[in-house]
Amino acid sequence: MARTRPRHSRVLLALALLISVGGLSSCTAEPVGEGSADVEVEPSPDAGQDSPDAAVEVADGGATDGALSDAGESDAGQLDAAVDAGSPRIFPFQYQRSDVGTPVSAAELTAVTDLYLDLLERLGYFKLIDLRAHGWPESAVTAPWYATWWSGVVVQRSGGKVTYLHPTDSSDNNGLRTAPMMEGACYAWRLWRHPTHELLLRRLMRGNSSWVLAMHRWPSDLDVLQARAAYPPPVTDLARGIFIDYSPDRPGIDGVTGEFVHIPANPLWGDIWIRSKRSKDDIPYMQRAISQVDTCATLFSDAGGRVDFELMRTLHQAWAARVAADGLRIATLNKSLAVTYPTDQFTWYNETAECDEVLALRLMAAGTPSTTNCGDGSRPPEITPGPNSSAMQIVRSAHEASSNLALLNGQDALARDLLGGLAKRTDLLIKAYLLGMAPSNITPQDFAELLIHSVNTGLPLTSREVRWLHDRIREAHTTYLDGRNAGTLAAQEPGAPDGTYAFEPTGAGLHFNDIGALLGSCAAQFRNPDTRPVLDCARVASRPPSW
Asked: Which of 12, 74, 194, 471 is the most exposed place for a label (fewest CB within 10 A)?
């Protein structure tokens, strides 16, 4: 029987649960710092009165709360042999595609798997993410810890001191950068069960929650808004040996895409500045990742990890429900701390032009598409002139998110249709690339990203798609490890020279933030047993990286 719960009540319950188990401050997965924050969150009769009180649909044993039910994992063939039991669900129906291209031999698969594992190891992939992702460190016990990825930050080393220096114009759309890294951390945790991967996953989940929690103006404020970014006071991460300098953004330089708003008494982080006007652009990346991290929902080593997941999921469901109730407009705070509705194009959804984005929003909010009908999700189609690369990436991520969320919420007919649309996208693009006619608004890394996240959500790849993706793995192995990133990777090593270093490594073939997401072809809960394998999953599971 379906039931509803007001948005603010759900947020209050999530926060109360989190605080009751010490979830905001505890970390038992090989902690690097301990302590607790004394946080009071009390309901208020007027909390959130600036906005409609949206409701989140929850089905008993079904769409939303039921999505976390602890079901056993059955045998799904060769792919599952490499992974321990524990994922709450498997791919729910048969979906096949006729194979095209020359099948990859066992020897070829082993060789490319070894290259991929070597890339993870020599790049120090997950260790580097753990070092560079930041927000509030575990060692600073006065406030809850969390981490996100950032753009525009540089690494400065002077006299042995390492500083992460933020730009004056903020770092927008960090959700699209953090999301695939969070997915990769989940897959690594599921495959190898190393405590460092679990802690990294928890830090990034908390980062996704922080964008909502940072918008709370006072203890009784339970409204559900999202910041573009949040800037607490500068702080030292003792465990990682870095000083995080947020001062250039306290405040930074206002612009069309957002203003810096002062929240002097945030209940969790105190005197913070936020960047207003949350953009819709990175939302589908976050929604896809939240649905994929459900893969790890039953695997956490203690209650704190499960609470971190529940809080992230609940806050983003409530935010999506609010946007839907607000006529697809994204509310924010102005400099007077009043709730406002910007009119910038990136702060509201056009259901006609952005059908997949609205579908993902509604599925996130309530587990059903409501009245939104996007067919197979393949519009705008690939090889469409006009939208640039980033715009098409947003479209693809929304398609992937919708497919993930449909599977997660038991919307099997919809999921089947959306998988058919993903197949249309990959078919068109692989033909264009093989004919040397790839459109200008997609890069090889973009197409690799589409293939990676499509296979993670149940699309079976063809042999020619797998071969194309293998070429990108080889290219990534060559370019990321050719020496161009030596300084970036060594910036925090003892004895590194003083200077300014890039925050993120560069290379071709694969986007840096998608490298770990490749593990999903072995670990994502909705991987399809009928796909041609991308990696030798038994080999992957038996050869964990050193970090």
From this structure: 74
